[in-house]
Write a structure and sequence with these properties.
Layout: H1 3-6, H2 53-83, H3 89-99, H4 101-112, H5 126-150, E1 169-172, E2 178-185, E3 193-198, H6 215-218, H7 228-234, E4 236-241, H8 257-270, E5 277-282, H9 286-295, E6 300-306, H10 319-328, H11 331-342, H12 347-353, H13 360-367, H14 373-379, H15 382-395, H16 402-412, E7 425-426, H17 433-441, E8 448-449, E9 455-460, H18 468-476, E10 481-485, H19 498-509, H20 518-524, H21 526-548
Parallel strand pairs: 3-4, 3-5, 5-6, 6-9, 9-10
Antiparallel strand pairs: 1-2, 2-4, 7-8
């Protein structure tokens, strides 16, 4: 039943109420209907359904987007009006930069490169176009790096550090510490010359001068180090030792360069080196050799320095010498020296990530900080690699970063003396009446201060190590003999070179004469031997007394 059949018909001129069947034809399709005699309205049953939540969210998002666009346009207009104005701070600062030397150079460079704009589309502004090109180039470069990092590669086999069983000879010092050492060459009582060599950073007694003959460990490999026959030929007794905290030596609770020199002296007396000896310092080990020249000069016959180091913060360095020294180093080494001087606690972090990581690959990266082309070619030899790894493994035996931090801090801190103190010069008489009376009453005797013995320096030139350090030493100590090696690196003149070793010994000791024949000397002058023994006892007592004080 329809509404029209049930409802009464209204009179003409009065509109009847609207009914849903007005919108449908007999077949259920929509038809035109008039309401109140007005314009026909077309609709459908679906139009009567309420709107869902999705439509509301869509309309809300569109409104928010329109508001964001309008806000962005407003901000853009504000920026243009405030910063784009000639009187704005940004424009005035940019004008100052353009007038500076750097700005003029940039403007000149832009003029030279303006021809590149000819390859841009005519309707594009060069500034906008090159900005887009630069951004795209940066993104492409970043994507390339990311792709290279994620590309699967064959894993590299990294050799782990192996700590060998303890095997060093050790001697106890008066303060109760043990120091590990290694002797080579002729015995001390038959030696014409004795050499003591403190090792460098990240090294041990096994390296010494870094060209020892590892016959006992590597005789099958035939490493061409310093041969025992050459030591025998020159009559040399060679003594190397582990610095405190390195290798098998006990750490020192209050370590400095003066205690380092005293350790050298006490070790020499303990192993029977009673006469004067030569000190040889290589690389950072030369720091301890300089200390020996300052604190125990009466026991030294001479000094040999190989690529020596000095304090890069030394106050007597000129501005040009300091600039040349720092310029020669890599950025990483400059950072480490800065940390050693200002923030030494941070060094432990870097050391544990490099040579204390337990992997030889990280150690090789640390080594490369000081290598030139010739040195890199040398260490690629498998024989040398075995030598180097064995020395490093012994150096880091104790696994502590403290001795390495101490060594780094000693290099850049106050040494307690200056190289100028080693310069041979006349002793100035004091002023005053008493000193004048002494000069009148006593016969005039010239007294000298500084180191009286010879000093030889060998410096390779194909190296990242700053040669300006050697120039600085020669300026302060003009009496030192400098041997410049223009075609050698940090290692090449010292490692595995028999002829180089012979040249060094010939320069220091002259013609080889072999060891001393004790039997002949005792038969010829027995009284002199007794005198020497008495002198040894007296010297030993004086050393113990000095150590106690």
């Amino acid at each position: 039943m329809s509404y029209s059949d049930s409802e009464p018909v209204f009179s003409a001129g009065r509109p009847r109420p609207w009914q849903p069947d007005d919108l449908l034809n007999g077949d259920g399709t929509a038809r035109a209907a008039s309401y109140g005699g007005g314009v026909p309205v077309y609709s459908s049953v679906n139009a009567m359904k309420p709107e869902g939540v999705r439509e509301h969210l869509r309309e809300f998002a569109a409104a928010v987007a329109e508001m964001a666009v309008e806000c962005g346009k407003g901000c853009r207009d504000i920026v243009r009006q405030s910063l784009g104005n000639r009187d704005s701070f940004v424009v005035r600062s940019f004008e100052k930069v353009k007038k500076s030397y750097f700005g003029k150079r940039v403007t000149k460079l832009r003029g030279k490169l303006s021809f590149v704009n000819e390859y841009l589309p005519e309707d594009k502004e060069p500034v906008h176009a090159w900005s887009v090109i630069l951004v795209v180039a940066v993104l492409a470069f970043a994507a390339l790096i990311l792709n290279m990092e994620t590309t699967p590669t064959t894993p590299e086999v990294v050799k782990k550090v192996y700590i060998h069983p303890a095997s060093a000879a050790r001697v106890m010092l008066p303060d109760g510490r043990y120091i590990a050492y290694k002797e080579q060459g002729v015995p001390a009582d038959r030696a014409r010359f004795s050499i003591i060599s403190p090792h460098s950073f990240l090294s041990s007694r096994l390296a010494g001068m870094h060209f020892l003959d590892f016959v006992s460990c590597f005789s099958k490999l035939g490493i061409p180090g310093l041969k025992a026959s050459l030591l025998e030929e020159f009559g040399i007794h060679l003594l190397t030792y582990d610095l405190p905290g390195f290798g098998e030596s006990d750490p020192h609770p209050d370590r400095n360069l003066e205690t380092s020199a005293m350790d050298m002296l006490l070790l020499a007396d303990a192993v029977g080196v009673n006469d004067k000896f030569w000190v040889v310092g290589y690389s950072s080990g030369s720091m301890h050799a300089w200390a020996a020249l300052r604190y125990i000069p009466d026991r030294l016959a001479g000094a040999a320095m190989l690529a020596p180091i000095v304090n890069p913060y030394d106050s007597i360095m000129t501005t040009e010498e300091r600039r040349r020294t720092w310029k020669r180093w890599t950025g990483r080494r400059q950072l480490l020296y800065f940390l050693a001087r200002r923030f030494p606690r941070f060094l432990s972090y870097f050391y544990h990530r490099s040579f204390l990581s337990g992997k030889h690959g990280q150690i090789d990266k640390w080594l490369s900080l000081s290598l030139g082309k010739r040195d890199k070619a040398l260490i690629e030899d498998p024989i040398y690699e075995e030598f180097w790894q064995r020395d490093v493994e012994e150096s880091i035996r104790q696994g502590s970063a403290k001795p390495f931090v101490e060594e780094a801090v000693l290099q850049v801190s106050n040494w307690g003396f200056s190289l100028a103190d080693l310069k041979l010069q006349k002793k100035q008489r004091g002023k005053g009446m008493l000193n004048w009376l002494k000069s009148v009453l006593s016969p005039a005797q010239e007294e000298y201060i500084g180191f009286l013995g010879p000093i030889h320096i060998w410096q390779g030139w194909m190296i990242r190590w700053p040669q300006s350090m050697t120039d600085f030493v020669h300026r302060i100590l003009p009496g030192a003999a400098v041997h410049k090696l223009p075609y050698e690196g940090h290692f090449t003149y010292i490692y595995f070179c028999d002829e180089c070793h012979r040249q060094i010994f010939t320069t220091l000791f002259g013609t080889p004469q072999g060891p001393i024949n004790i039997t002949t000397e005792v038969d010829q002058s027995p009284l002199q031997v007794n005198t020497e023994e008495q002198e040894e006892i007296t010297l030993g007592d004086s050393v113990l007394a000095r150590a106690e004080t």
